[in-house]
Amino acid sequence: MARNFPPDLVQAQREWTRTYDALAAEPFRTVLRRRLQLLSSRIARHPYWSAAAGRSSADRTELRRQARAAEQHEKRHAA
Question: What is the pTM of this model?
Answer without folding.
Answer: 0.85
